[in-house]
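Hello,

Following up on my earlier ticket. Below are the four sequence lines again, exactly as submitted.
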Amino acid sequence: MAETVNIKRLAQELNISIATVSKALNDSHEISLKTKNRVWTLAKELNYTPNPAASNLRSNKTKTVAVVIPCVANNFFSLSIMGIEEIARQYGYHVLIYQTHENIEAEKAFTNSLLNGRVDGILTSVSSSEYNSEYYANLVKKIPLVFFDRVYENLDAVKVTTDDYEIAFQATEHLIECGCTKIAYLFGLENLPAGKARFAGYLDALKSHGLAPSDELVIKYHDDEEFNLQQIKELLGKYKPDALFSSIEEFIIPAYCACRELGLQIPDDVKVLSFSNLSTAKLLSPSLTTISQPAFEIGREAAKCLFKILHNKQLDDEQNIILKSVLTKRESTGC
Amino acid sequence: MAETVNIKRLAQELNISIATVSKALNDSHEISLKTKNRVWTLAKELNYTPNPAASNLRSNKTKTVAVVIPCVANNFFSLSIMGIEEIARQYGYHVLIYQTHENIEAEKAFTNSLLNGRVDGILTSVSSSEYNSEYYANLVKKIPLVFFDRVYENLDAVKVTTDDYEIAFQATEHLIECGCTKIAYLFGLENLPAGKARFAGYLDALKSHGLAPSDELVIKYHDDEEFNLQQIKELLGKYKPDALFSSIEEFIIPAYCACRELGLQIPDDVKVLSFSNLSTAKLLSPSLTTISQPAFEIGREAAKCLFKILHNKQLDDEQNIILKSVLTKRESTGC
DNA sequence: CTGATACGCGAAAACGTTTACGTAATTAAA
DNA sequence: TTTAATTACGTAAACGTTTTCGCGTATCAG
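Thanks for your patience. The regenerated structure is below:
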């Protein structure tokens, strides 16, 4: 118990060399089954587990990956992590978590600190505050990295995303079909491809139905609850849109609150629809029409890709994996 | 760039020994300021970062902690992780995540795999499937460990919890004051101190107001959505309680759905109240009266304790830190 | 019977740090 | 002036693995 049990100890007790023990533990073909069994049983008996630091140092493999994301306390990201963790478990990998809080400097600091062999690879969903592709262009040369959801384009790296443009288009059409002609857009992730694609889908849907987009009907997300609420109230009061298309989950609460405070009925006075992974969307008052991304699957898929890369397996075909979101129509768009 | 930059490289370029470089980097008093500055500037210039594996191996410190929890995709736990991560960042620690999915065997396997020097300490919220204190009694002797929320009692370890008994008592009284006399209890975490305390608070509140508890009004959580829904529907149909006290967030959706399917109006026909960290509680239909635990602070507090232990600092006084939950009265208890 | 081949294992180096100890030069105390 | 203490640095061992290389023995084909 007090004695630390390492490979040397096993070797002594079995009267064989530490090289043989090491090889036996790694199931090397150089070792006879008889010897392997002796080693395995003693290892189990003494509860031996290899020292990760020593192993990492020698082999340059850590069996660890890092997940760098804006925030854990977010339905999308916590589901993604869950997916990542599930796959990591299957592959016997460990998972480190880093939160950037949308701060690109923190993001760089974290990823830089991971380049010295702390992890074998990185899974990341980048922060929305800035779009600095130079940094990542260099980074992807130095370490296996997979982007998910919030990605940098045109880089030599795998990206797992969703059909943002198409689903936003489809959702906008849904609002139009419900009779809306003045659809406001609550703009999030404006610096990122995902945010731009969602907005483009919205705009194109408007155009294809002969509706003119208007800057007045677009407001942008700020990291300030009160500010967002006021923005939406002003939007609703001043320009009287008949629908709110929220491109990120963070707008849901202020949107609902704004309507309540102004005495606007959802969906009669204004219809509401949002990108969201909220499990209680159907319990809201009224229940909320959502575009939900397959967060769990995104995490799984991203992790699978990373492990394929780490094991030098051929990636099936493309570097761009695109999963489908689903539009769930509920009372808030009422039709 | 191709050349890996390590301590040896720095030593060569500066024409000093690697020992001197190492000491300089660690700001040892043995090294002159002049030499330190030479080392520091070159280190920065070459973007040197120490190899963690080598450092861990030699020093037996990993600057890493593990968080072992049932599930990431849960409002309480994701907030806790956020708190933990924040403190870990301040102390320069890394955070590993492990999900047990309420499986005690997985839990043991994970924690065992952490005993070989992979981490300096563990933060855990144990699984509810079983209460096996022998295992943890041994574990806490082997590695610094802090429990949060879901704890093992009577062990020599720090525990960060909330005032489960008191807040459950208070919440039950609230229902009674709203005129309820037949309060059903949706029982979760029954094997754990937290679950037992909540239930005890409920029972004692009933008794102190002259209400008789009834087994018929208590149902237990199962890991099966449909089953829970049916259970609640049966409870509502058969025994006509005038309130549902849900001791865990997972009962909210089935409780609301059951009421809707049976045509029962909340709060007129039945009042509902739940432990929950749901951010959208106020947007539900009707808005939900909640007991919310300070999840973020719990994470912060637990992490702080662990780091104090790791730095051999005296823990202020007690091993039991108890934070206050808050009862937020909303429409679902309507009074 | 000889040479080649495979098998099973051990010796030792290597991974990049940290640290106990030694040493020379300088400074302070006696 | 001698001795002790301090300063600034170097040597080398150690942490626990993995892996290359080599060696002896057994097996087998010719």
